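re: ur question from yesterday

yeah so i grabbed the chain u mentioned. its 140 aa long if i counted rite. heres the sequnce exactly as i have it in my notes:
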Amino acid sequence: MQRFQYKVIPAPRRGEKAKGAKTTEDRFAVALTQIMNEMGAEGWEYLRADTLPCDERVGLTGSKTTYQNMLVFRRPLSLEEIAPQAEGAGATPPVVQPTGSALRVVSTAEAPPPRALGAATPTEGAAPKLGAPWQERAAE
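ran it thru and got these structure tokens back, copy pasting raw so excuse formatting
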């Protein structure tokens, strides 16, 4: 199973001046090409562009929704990032958790234990306690 790390950056809003780029479309293509080449040099593969809603505050109590254009990149995690840090042959693989716009690999000791689908959380299957909390303390 291949594991990936993802990075999301805002799409350019303006074109870049370049020799031979005279129209708005040409300049915008230059700006996008520069971003793609920079990310590719760092090992990131372009995956897709998304337009996502973003709620912004307006005044003291108001808000409005704007839409942000984002570029999504990914790259395979290296073996060092995937390999468990724990010693022993029976070590479980690490868990990948989101952090900001990227993912980080954590050891299974840091990760919360997995929960089976449909399994009750600790409070779901427990019988309700009757009485007020101060009564329980007084009875102990």
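noticed a couple things. The first helix runs from residue 24 to 41. also The chain is about 20% helix and 35% strand.
anyway ttyl
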